[in-house]
Amino acid sequence: MDEIFSLIKQRMEDRKKGEPFLISIGGAGGCGKSTFVKKLASFLNTTAILELDHYKTPREERYPKRIFGADPQANECDLIVKHLKELKKNGTIERPYYCSTAGRATHSEKFLPAEIILIDGEISSYEQFRLLCDLSIFIDSSLKTQLKTRFSRDIKERGYSAKKALETFIYSNVKEFRKYGLPTKEFVDIVLFCDSNYTLSLGPS
């Protein structure tokens, strides 16, 4: 955390006065990303978290094509870019609210800019979003760790059957993210590795 805070402080000194500082935090589903984002937010002042999961396209459009969250087609990428640019200018946005039960965004919510904005999402390290941020972090982990997390979460919190949870993991983590998300690790500022005990260490696996 000391090294991360040091880099954040250094980068913040280089920004324009009064301009929000955007940090993208990417990584596969189940890698410990959201837990890290919440912990980081608790250490920083005047922080807001923008969750990119809310920008998913309707499930009825994705499911027949077998595309999940890591595929760019599964996300409102143009809207994300528009919103990040607006936030960078201290603007307020109307962020969509994705309802997992309905499988689509059901309404929008006002999102106010803050001194530091954490961009949380498996796609947040993708180039078109990363280049709009001031600092980029990628959290890596083994597929075993990701499976343990997603399997538990999808069954307990989302009511998936074991078969559906496993199918989702195979398509999303093994196929999609390894194709679209994993290569972005090479271009971020900081790589963290989350082990099976959910302990983070600096540097790739």
Description:
With 205 residues, the chain is of the alpha/beta class. The protein has a single domain, classed as 3-Layer(aba) Sandwich (Rossmann fold), CATH 3.40.50.300. It is 38% helix and 22% strand. The chain has 7 helices and 8 strands; from the N terminus they run αβαβααβββαβααββ. The strands form 2 sheets. A 6-stranded mixed sheet has the order 2-5-1-6-7-8. A two-stranded antiparallel sheet has the order 3-4. Helix 6 crosses helix 7. The longest helix is centred in the C-terminal third of the chain and has 19 residues. It is globular. The relative contact order is 0.21. The model has no long low-confidence stretch (mean pLDDT 92).
In the CATH scheme, the class would be: Alpha Beta
Major β-sheet annotation:
6 strands, mixed
Q: Which sequence of strands runs across the widest sheet?
A: 2-5-1-6-7-8
Q: Low-confidence stretches at least 5 residues in length (pLDDT < 50)? A: none
Q: Looking at CATH, which topology would you report? A: Rossmann fold
% residues in beta strands: 15-25%
Brief sketch in words of this structure:
The chain is of the alpha/beta class. It is built from seven helices and eight strands, in the order H-E-H-E-H-H-E-E-E-H-E-H-H-E-E.
Structure keywords:
205 residues; alpha/beta; Rossmann fold; six-stranded mixed β-sheet; two-stranded antiparallel sheet; 38% helix; 22% strand
